[in-house]
Amino acid sequence: MVAKIDRIDAIRALFREKRRLTFEEIYKEFGEYSAMTIRRDLNNMIRLNELQKVSLGYQVYNLTESAEQEIINSDKKRKIGNKLDELIKDGDVIYFSPGTTNLVVVGQLTKRVRVYTNDYSVFKAADSNKKIEQAVLIGGFDYSRNNVFVGETTIKTIQLMRFDYAVYGVVGIARNGDLYNNHMEEAMIEKTVALVADKMVIVADDSKMQKQGHFIFHTLAQSDYFITNNKNHLNLKRIDNLTIL
């Protein structure tokens, strides 16, 4: 059995993926524990104002209209994850960048792959997917206390690796194909990964189109695949050698 703090983190990861859950949906992920233990964890999260009880189960506390939209976007991200699962094969070694898209995507994988990431939440989601062969967290400096590791140690570790695919989530995609990230430290990691990955895969739902962030870390023209939930009406300039799924 995992420690209580890891179990709570795993419950939080479930609610990041799907903002409303019934008790049965939660409990089936933790069959090694008693129902009483899981209910106690949920009640503690309610006392901490992380969750609230609703008629059909539990939801993130103070679910707002923007969070309702996040539920819709999570469905889009699951569709993206299914498309990625069709692309990859057993035995592949894959890097996943930090972010909510990859947090959902790794949960959709059914292939026996090895997953590497510098995002603790993505790592935990991958580690809880029993179909994945191995999940590895790349350590370093937790620069913003959000469990995303960056810095010299992370870069030097990645430079010694090789990936079949690097899967990047984005903050936004400009019409000309520029890809945006809001954190310079993460952008540096993603530039390093690009040097040791055979194929670059961009994953983004249609809510990210025509949006910008603080830093351009890559472009669609430098990528091999762009996976989205709806490839119609993307309003992108034509990019040769880019496969859109």
TrEMBL record:
Record has Glycoprotein as a keyword: no
Q: Is-annotated flag, keyword Transcription?
A: yes
Domain of life of the native organism: Bacteria
Check the record and name the SUPFAM superfamilies matching this protein: NagB/RpiA/CoA transferase-like
Task: Give the species.
Answer: Mycoplasmopsis agassizii
The protein's matches in PANTHER family, at most eight in alphabetical order, are given as: AGA OPERON TRANSCRIPTIONAL REPRESSOR-RELATED (PTHR30363:SF44), HTH-TYPE TRANSCRIPTIONAL REGULATOR SRLR-RELATED (PTHR30363)
The DeoR-like transcriptional repressor C-terminal sensor domain, residue ranges: 73-229
Q: Keywords of this protein's UniProt record, alphabetized?
A: Transcription, Transcription regulation
Sample GO molecular function, one term: DNA-binding transcription factor activity
By what name is this protein known?
A: DeoR family transcriptional regulator
User: InterPro entries per the record?
Assistant: Carb_Metab_HTH_regulators, DeoR-like_C, DeoR_HTH, NagB/RpiA_transferase-like
What SMART domains would the database entry show?
DeoRC (SM01134)
Report the residue ranges that make up the HTH deoR-type domain in this protein: 7-54
